[in-house]
Amino acid sequence: LFAPFKEKDDRPLASMNIISEKVGNGINLEQFYSQSAANLSTALKEVNVEKTGTSMLNGTPTKWMQYTHVMQGVKFTVIQYFVVSNENIYLITFSASQEDFEKYRADFERIANSFKLQVQTPQTIPAPAATQQSAPAATKPSQAPAPQPAIAPVK
User: Fold this and answer.
1) What does pTM read for this prediction?
2) What is the pLDDT of residues 11-22, one digit of tens each?
3) How far, in whole angstroms, is CA 2 from its chain's centroid?
4) 2 with 15: CB under 8 angstroms?
5) Is 126 within 8 Å of 137 (Cβ atoms)?
6) If you ran DSSP here, which 8-state letter would residue 12 be given?
7) What is the Cβ-side half-sphere exposure of residue 40, based on CA atoms within 13 angstroms?
8) DSSP letters of 72-111?
9) Structure confidence by residue, pLDDT tens digits, 105-141
10) DSSP structure class, residue 29
């Protein structure tokens, strides 16, 4: 999601990105945050972490970091929120040019705080019907996989 382009240089004013991935039970919030922070300098140029902290996004514990980096000659300021729930990780990223970041900070925070994890309800899958040549099918329905949380904006 990008804000409208600037007229003078056709660069976006601001952007938002959400990444989610099912990783199993092998990672907690601190590990996800630490591994991501360690990879910043290898993935981006001229990274400078300015602020870090912990917070709650709509009742969900998160860690966050604000940093700057240079891409295609433009200095960007980025704030990222790290969330781990059950077997899933979520990374919510907001970015703007360094000169425009403060104009969007309140919007970034409002959008981030509008997200909450929702548990999807499992659905019952009916057992296959019996055929004339086979024994009667089991009457116990099979269950869908365990509920998985999803991150969604609050309306």
Assistant:
1) 0.69
2) 667 889 999 988
3) 16
4) yes
5) no
6) B
7) 20
8) TTEEEEEEEEEEEETTEEEEEEEEEETTTHHHHHHHHHHH
9) 999 999 998 888 776 655 555 666 655 554 444 444 4
10) H
